[in-house]
């Protein structure tokens, strides 16, 4: 009897599995978006056909086929209308799907209106096959309809596309609407087009494989996607899979960035294979270069943006030039907009030269949109012509031809790459003429005092260290200083960036009951969330758990003050919750996580990107120290507090959190461990704390960006290399800065800039805070706009850098 009881669960498991994996779907069967009958499975359970909730919108569903056992439930097919420009079909929870003998499949919305049908005739049953093909079968065994014959953005092994077939990308990964890219299988070859949304107009192809084509085949044995020509020969479209096909799921998708990628996913993940889709092959080889084949439209990344292709992960990134930002962070194809008022044509040349400047960029070009060309001409003349021309947004200069091009907005098909041999100059306002300062200037008041407000500092590693640090906190951390101008607190409905007041229930729902942790800090935990708005906006929610009890008015005023700080290189505060004992801050979500994760990972960031990140952090600190209405000293600048958005723009986080903390809440959080970290030495001396503590921390981070290593690496064998600040100083004194970027060909080819950045960093990490430059000076030196004297040794006593 006992043996039988032990076997009972196993028997139930054996008999229950086939019941879940549908063999044939009988006539009269139906599905609904919610409940147990929401999908039909293939015999293996690998694929499912039915209602699939749309990511970020739990009230809308697709009729789709998906990989049922993959962690992301990747969608391979979804229903669209059957007109000349097929449109996405979305239904609500009240919809239903019926299998009928005459009409085949009939999808009805919540009102009972038929919104999609297969129009099958003589259907006997339906089946979800193990290949991922959903079929309607007649009584004679013939296929009356199949999902493989109406592909959307994906093809699967055994699937064959015939001449005239197309694949259309999604608009973004989470929006299945018709995207901006089309794969068209024609009798003369395979062509990839950029498509204007929503009109559907096709521009010239940006990539093609010509030939007298009859079909595009995904071979299930070799994993090769190939083109069949009318003479019977074959041309490889992708290289195929190395190893066995049976151990992986496979798909090939025209992705939202215009790249046709072949993927595989391990059916049984092991220590050697992660549970994620990996790229097998892709076309075109470089989407940023491929877009240059067309001379109309906005290009891959949209107007005023430029495309950067990362060879290491086969991904492209869209970036904005300095003082530009994306119109829509989630839909970057819409392009970039200037964060300032364009130059007025009413300005005379002298005034224009004072109010605007040109920022140089290398290895970046917009090949079109030029309206004037000069040759021969010098680089200085080129810049001056653009600076005094109100129509000119960008000047491009090519040294080899002594040629200058003036370009006006919008600029298209922007590209960044090693093959670009032109210098690009972007026109932006001088620091004293930005839009944000102009708006706030009439609200400033003089001769106010403020508290220096810092974040958490260090984790004590010993009793002695803790005693010292607590003494610093009690006597040195919060000191009063005078600033020239402090702006008044704006109400939440002012023009600009109004903060939203969230309820606790809203944020609890948005974060799935605070399920996914993004990070932890001294003041609380940060969770990932998604708002239930039209865009499904992703957010980062910080629950403050170490805030002293204060009135609702005090908390709200402080939050509104922080909310006024707005800069491209600061993480934006979207809103807050002040409900009962709950205090939460809602920030914009940073797609690429922290600099700590990206900089010290397995893949080295490109040198140009690292230099761009350094400038971004410097400009963010400059804003906090000198340009925002209330000076803020961060006090905790480190890679973990520098976040990267989808465009790899560096954004400083936690810069205002200390405003919400009392003195006795600023606890030590990072161990010194007997070596220099990111902490300026004056924290341990009986002297006042100034903005120069942030300058020191920036210097350390700048060296880490240059060398792609942490400041302190105790595992390093060579004793002189364990601490980066010391080693960098030694390399510079010996004239061997190249040692710091050994193995980084891109940085070595740009050694002059590397040396300039190293010298700036060495000035920043001077022991004496009065010798460190201001962040204004740092930005000027990094930009090359200011000369840089030789930094003294740490033991020297020189005059402060002017």
UniProtKB/TrEMBL annotation:
Membrane topology: Single-pass type I membrane protein
Residues annotated as domain Protein kinase: 512-798
Pfam families membership: B_lectin (PF01453), Pkinase (PF00069)
UniProt GO cellular component terms: membrane
Subcellular location: Membrane
Catalytic reaction annotation: L-seryl-[protein] + ATP = O-phospho-L-seryl-[protein] + ADP + H(+); L-threonyl-[protein] + ATP = O-phospho-L-threonyl-[protein] + ADP + H(+)
Domain of life: Eukaryota
UniProt signal peptide: 1-21
One GO-annotated biological process of the protein: response to other organism
Primary location class: membrane
Enzyme Commission number(s): 2.7.11.1
Transmembrane segments: none
Positions with a binding annotation for ATP: 543
CDD domains: PAN_AP_plant (cd01098), STKc_IRAK (cd14066)
Family affiliation: Belongs to the protein kinase superfamily. Ser/Thr protein kinase family.
UniProt protein name: Receptor-like serine/threonine-protein kinase
Lineage, broadest ranks: Eukaryota, Viridiplantae, Streptophyta, Embryophyta, Tracheophyta
């Amino acid at each position: 009897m006992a043996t039988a009881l032990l076997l009972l669960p196993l028997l139930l498991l054996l008999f229950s599995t086939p019941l879940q994996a549908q063999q044939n779907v009988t006539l009269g069967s139906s599905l609904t978006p919610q409940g147990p009958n929401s999908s039909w499975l293939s015999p293996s359970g690998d694929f499912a056909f039915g209602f699939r909730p749309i990511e970020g919108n739990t009230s809308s569903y697709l009729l789709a086929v998906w990989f049922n056992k993959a962690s992301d439930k990747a969608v391979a097919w979804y229903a669209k209308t059957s007109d000349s420009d097929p449109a996405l079909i979305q239904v609500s929870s009240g919809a239903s799907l019926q299998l009928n003998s005459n009409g085949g499949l009939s999808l009805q919305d919540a009102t009972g209106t038929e919104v999609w049908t297969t129009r099958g005739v003589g259907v006997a049953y339906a089946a979800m096959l193990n290949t991922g093909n959903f079929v309607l079968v007649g009584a004679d065994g013939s296929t009356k309809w199949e999902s493989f014959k109406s592909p959307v953005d994906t093809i699967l092994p055994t699937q064959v596309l015939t001449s005239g077939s197309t694949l259309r990308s999604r608009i973004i990964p989470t929006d299945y609407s018709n995207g901006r890219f089309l794969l068209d299988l024609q009798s003369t070859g395979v062509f990839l087009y950029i498509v204007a949304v929503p009109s559907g107009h096709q521009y010239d192809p940006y990539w093609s494989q010509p030939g007298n084509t009859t079909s595009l085949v995904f071979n299930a044995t070799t994993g090769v996607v190939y083109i069949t020509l009318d003479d019977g020969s074959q041309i490889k479209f992708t290289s195929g899979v190395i190893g066995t096909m049976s151990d992986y799921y496979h798909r090939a998708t025209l992705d939202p960035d215009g790249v046709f990628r072949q993927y595989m996913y391990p059916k049984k993940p092991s220590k050697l294979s992660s549970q994620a889709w990996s790229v097998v092959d892709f076309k075109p080889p470089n989407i940023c270069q491929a877009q240059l084949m067309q001379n109309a439209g906005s290009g891959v990344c949209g107007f005023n943006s430029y495309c950067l292709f990362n060879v290491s992960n086969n991904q492209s990134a869209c970036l904005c030039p300095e003082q530009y930002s994306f119109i829509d962070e989630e839909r970057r194809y819409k392009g970039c907009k200037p964060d300032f008022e364009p130059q007025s044509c009413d300005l005379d040349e002298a005034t224009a030269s004072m109010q605007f400047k040109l920022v140089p960029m290398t290895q970046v070009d917009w090949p079109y949109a030029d309206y004037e060309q000069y040759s021969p001409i010098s680089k200085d003349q080129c810049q001056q012509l653009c600076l005094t021309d109100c129509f000119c947004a960008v000047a491009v200069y090519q040294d080899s031809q002594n040629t200058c091009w003036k370009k006006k907005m919008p600029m298209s098909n922007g590209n960044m790459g090693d093959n670009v041999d032109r210098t690009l100059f972007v026109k932006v306002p001088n620091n004293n003429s930005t839009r944000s300062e102009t708006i706030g200037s009439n609200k400033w008041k003089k001769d106010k005092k403020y508290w220096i407000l810092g974040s958490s500092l260090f984790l004590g590693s010993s009793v002695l260290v803790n005693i010292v640090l607590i003494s610093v906190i009690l006597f040195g951390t919060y000191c009063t200083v005078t600033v020239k101008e402090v702006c008044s607190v704006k109400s939440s409905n002012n023009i600009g960036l109004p903060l939203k007041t969230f309820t606790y229930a809203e944020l609890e729902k948005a974060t799935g009951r605070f399920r996914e942790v993004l990070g932890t800090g001294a003041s609380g935990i940060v969770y990932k969330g998604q708002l239930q708005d039209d865009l499904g906006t992703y957010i980062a929610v910080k629950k403050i758990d170490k805030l002293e009890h204060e009135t609702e008015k005090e908390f709200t005023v402080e939050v509104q003050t922080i909310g006024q700080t707005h800069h491209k290189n600061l993480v934006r505060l979207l809103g807050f919750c002040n409900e009962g004992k709950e205090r939460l801050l809602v920030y914009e979500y940073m797609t690429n996580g922290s600099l700590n994760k990206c900089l010290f990972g397995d893949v080295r960031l490109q040198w140009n990107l690292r230099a761009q990140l350094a400038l971004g952090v410097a400009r963010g600190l400059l804003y906090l120290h000198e340009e925002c209405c209330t000076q803020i000293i961060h006090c905790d600048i480190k890679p973990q507090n520098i976040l990267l958005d989808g465009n790899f723009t560096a954004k400083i986080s936690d810069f205002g959190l200390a405003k919400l903390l009392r003195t006795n809440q600023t606890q030590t959080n990072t161990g010194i461990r007997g070596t220099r970290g990111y902490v300026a030495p004056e924290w341990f001396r009986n002297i006042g704390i100034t903005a120069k503590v942030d300058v020191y921390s920036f210097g350390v981070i700048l060296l880490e960006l240059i060398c792609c290593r942490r400041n302190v690496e105790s595992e390093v064998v060579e004793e002189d290399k364990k601490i980066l600040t010391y080693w960098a100083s030694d390399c510079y004194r010996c004239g061997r800065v190249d040692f710091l970027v050994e193995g980084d060909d891109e940085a070595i080819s740009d050694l002059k800039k590397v040396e300039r950045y190293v010298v700036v960093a060495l000035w920043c990490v001077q022991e004496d805070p009065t010798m460190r430059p201001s962040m204004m000076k740092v930005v000027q030196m990094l930009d090359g706009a200011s000369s840089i004297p030789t930094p003294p040794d740490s033991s020297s006593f020189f005059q402060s850098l002017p």
